[in-house]
Write a structure and sequence with these properties.
Distance between the termini: 39 Å
Radius of gyration: 18 Å
Strand content: 15-25%
CATH class: Alpha Beta
Length: 253
């Protein structure tokens, strides 16, 4: 997909309209990562980078009932959705959503006790993200991210094609070493369960594709975007043993 093409970009966001989340993940995995992070201050300051529509933002608000959470995303409609969800949870006094660029965050050094980023650090490059975000952490601050990884070194060509847009994708061992290289201590990591892909992400996406496919009948450019999204789902259903997401939880060393 050409994200710079206005038409294809529009269709992409149509596919993703009203999805509960913008990548694999679920409440239990967010909770497990937060448990790994360990003790936080009594009223922690939390930054959720590339929050999307805010499913994990609201999960964090539930799990950290005294936290002040700032959620940032470049896509204004997602920011509006975070605000709506926060209001529905009665958390507008603790969740602040804003449009922003993960590569140019407008925060002073040592502003946060916990930085969170599910499924989006790759946009900057994981190493760049880890280095850029570290100064924003307070003493004893924690950082948690999810990152796509190879689980086997022999993925079929169909799987490779599905990940052509992310040639920098590595395995878990590489990412563990990268955490240390960037000056963090790895507290722990775990793979997201397949249910976090199939039930919480691809299930709703499949329903959305089935709902809108007739809207674009005869539109070649739009059909290409829909086909790419369907292929993403189908490849994971068939080849999930070859790749996944690792949740990396670390502390500034």
């Amino acid at each position: 997909m050409d994200f710079d093409d206005p038409k294809q970009r529009s269709v992409f966001f149509d596919v993703h309209t009203d999805l509960p989340r913008e990548g694999p993940g679920n409440f239990d995995s967010t909770k497990q990562a937060l448990t790994l992070a360990g003790e936080l201050p009594s009223s922690p300051r939390v930054l959720d980078i590339a929050c999307g529509p805010g499913m994990q933002t609201i999960d964090l608000a539930k799990l950290l009932p005294t936290a002040i959470i700032t959620a940032v995303d470049f896509h204004a409609p997602y920011v509006k959705e975070v605000e709506r969800r926060a209001a529905a949870q009665g958390a507008t006094d603790r969740v602040v959503a804003m449009v922003g660029d993960m590569a140019d965050l407008p925060f002073a050094p040592a502003s946060f006790d916990l930085i969170w980023c599910e499924g989006a650090a790759y946009i900057m490059g994981v190493e760049n993200a880890l280095r850029a975000w570290k100064p924003l952490l307070r003493a004893n601050g924690k950082l948690a991210i999810t990152e796509a990884v190879w689980l086997r070194g022999d993925p079929p060509s169909r799987v490779r094609r599905c990940w052509l847009e992310y040639p920098a994708m590595k395995d878990v061992a590489f990412n563990r070493q990268l955490v240390a290289t960037c000056g963090y201590k790895l507290i722990g990591d775990f793979l997201l369960p397949k249910s976090a892909w199939l039930d919480d992400y691809y299930g709703p996406m499949q329903k959305r594709l089935d709902t809108i496919k007739d809207r674009y009948r005869g539109d070649r450019a739009a059909q290409d975007v829909l086909a790419e999204s369907q292929e993403e789902i189908d490849v994971y259903r068939t080849y999930s043993d070859y790749y996944g997401y690792v949740f990396l939880v670390m502390a500034a060393a």
